[in-house]
Amino acid sequence: MVNIIFDYNQTLFNPDENKLYNGVYELLEKLYKEFSLFLFSYNEFGREKFMKDSKIEKFFKNVALVNKKNETNMLQLVEAFPAEITLVVGDSLRDEIAIGNELGYETVWLKKGKFASETPRKEKEKPKYTIHALEEIFEITEKYKKE
Fold first, then answer.
1. Do residues 86 and 79 make contact, with C-beta atoms less than 8 angstroms apart?
2. Least crowded by CB within 10 Å, which of 30, 107, 126, 142?
């Protein structure tokens, strides 16, 4: 079993246009059939309502809307769903990638948008994979289907 934890803002959701990025719904629909999906996000005003309205909640086994992103919150998100491998997909080296690495998860940095110019300041901020478009996640998940 493989778990995939997604960051929400700037990974799945475009805050500038107040909508999901193009293709996100279809991407989640495909991944949902083969992997256990989770959502890890800051608990910002209106976020929960938007997720319900966009109907993406149904793809996730668990959703964590947190005031602070840390190892404890991420671990609690998936602890009831043991997996051989957990992938963490996010746009911030300092948040999702560092936390995922700290927990020993496989990390996927979506290098686009607000944090695209970040560079790792320490070892735990180095992602295992770097992608430039969310659809590239399929190339990575193919490797885990065969294992």
1. no
2. 142
